[in-house]
Specification:
CATH superfamily of the largest domain: Ribonucleotide Reductase, subunit A
Order of helices and strands: EEHHHHHHHHHHHHHH
Bound molecules: fe (iii) ion, manganese (II) ion
Helix content: 55-70%
Distance between the termini: 39 Å
Strand order of the largest sheet: 1-2
Number of strands: 2
CATH architecture of the largest domain: Orthogonal Bundle
CATH class of the largest domain: Mainly Alpha
Number of domains: 2
Largest sheet: 2 strands, antiparallel
Number of helices: 14
Strand content: under 5%
Oligomer: single chain
Length: 396
């Protein structure tokens, strides 16, 4: 607790009336009796009650925290959330800083790309331009609304802003390549597997947009489900089919600008997955009654559905297979990733022992590795003031 500032002028050996009580506060080394500290400034005398402050701190919670606490960031109760916030801030990027001229040249050339390469990019833009907005909206209007600790609101605000950056990067890709923006809307409506993936998450988000008594176990479970579905099923699993395909094209020197942007996006997503994972674990720790076997089974079922939807989506992304773009390998990759997510929150696996079919992708995803060519391109964009690396995906 921080009552030790050297700059404050603290009264020494003085008797003070404390709000009606007759107790005497002796400010010795900054600390009065009964944990009260007196600061005298310009003839005014202020009494600071450490005990009361400690009570407020103890009442800081993921949900149902003290309601008089508006934005008391300090002292931090959830240090991990602030550390993640700093990590995310250090990774800040803007789409316009990434050159698109090579991508535009390739897009227009008949020889440099195949139609199936272009289709993957169209699916990427079509899916993510809706998905980024859905995630950001849920973070702001559901999760950030319901959590009460200020440091959690801080990092969730940054999360939502990063979704804006991702959405903005897609606009930048669309306008650079000259894709008709109506086409993106049409993909969202007409490609069934995109609609199904979006419906799966928006339904869960809508369930929480009403006045709920958050002291009830079933309502806390609804929130926990939302954190799990958005963090582990959507951002953590359903983003990875396309991430893998686009990075596979990037590896073949196709779409250097788009690949670069997706590598930054992936780095951000690793932090989002970790944020929602920690948040869920913290919520469970503070409300252990929600973590029943029945509830855990329902989460595993949701992941199973998420994986099925992603596999249908992979079929639509890869109507034609080519080098590095094999449908079955991508489906196995999703099984592998989904199990890593389940493992991360202590749930049973769906495909025990499944191996990652893309060791090269594991290297690209593991942006902590120092000898990695792609990793160098990623880190050189980091702000030099704070080189902090993502926590997640180190073992994918
Ligand atoms: Fe995103
Ligand atoms: Mn995200």
């Amino acid at each position: 607790m921080g009552f030790e500032s050297q700059e404050e002028r603290v009264t020494q050996e003085q008797s003070v009336e404390l709000s009606g009580s007759s107790s005497v506060a002796v400010a010795e080394g900054g600390e009065g009796v009964e944990g009260k500290k007196i600061i005298e400034v310009g003839g005014k005398r202020f009494v600071l009650d450490r005990k009361k402050a400690e009570e407020v701190f103890a009442a800081k919670k993921v949900i149902n925290g003290i309601d008089t606490m508006t934005f008391n960031l300090l002292p931090l109760k959830y240090q991990w959330a602030y550390d993640l916030y700093r990590n995310m801030k250090a990774n800040h990027w803007e789409p316009e800083d990434i050159p698109m001229n090579k991508d535009i040249e390739q897009w227009r050339s008949a020889e440099q790309l195949s139609d199936s390469d272009r289709w993957i990019i169209r699916m990427g833009i079509g899916y993510f331009s809706a998905a980024e907005g859905i995630v950001g909206d849920n973070i702001i209007h559901v999760i950030r609304e319901m959590v009460t600790a200020p440091e959690l609101k801080l990092v969730l605000g940054r999360h939502a802003h990063e979704e804006n950056i991702h959405a903005d990067s897609l606009l930048y890709m669309i306008s650079s390549l000259g894709i008709d923006p109506h086409e993106c809307e049409a993909m969202f409506v007409d490609v069934e597997s995109i609609g199904a993936k979006n419906e799966f998450v928006t339904r869960i988000s809508k369930d929480l947009r009403r006045d709920l008594d958050m002291t009830k176990t079933e309502n806390i479970q609804e929130l926990a489900k939302n954190m799990f579905v958005f963090g582990q099923c959507m951002e953590g699993t359903q983003f990875y089919g396309l991430f893998g395909m686009i990075l596979s094209l990037w590896r073949q020197n196709k779409f250097p600008g788009i690949g670069q942007m997706f590598s930054y996006t992936l780095r951000d997503e690793s932090n989002h997955i970790e944020l929602l994972r920690q948040l869920l674990m913290q919520l469970v720790e503070e409300n252990p009654e929600i973590w029943t076997n029945e509830f855990k089974d329902s989460l595993v079922d949701l992941m199973r559905t998420a994986v099925d939807l992603e596999k249908q989506f992979i079929d639509d992304c890869l109507p034609v297979e080519s080098v590095g773009l094999n449908r079955e390998d991508f489906k196995t990759y999703i099984d592998f990733i989904a199990d890593r997510r389940l493992e991360g929150v202590g749930l049973p696996l769906l495909n025990e022992g499944v191996k990652n079919p893309f060791p090269w992708l594991a290297e690209m995803m593991d942006i902590k590795k120092e000898q990695n060519f792609f990793e160098q391109r990623v880190t050189e964009y980091q702000k030099s003031s704070a080189l902090v690396k993502p926590q997640d995906d180190s073992d994918l």
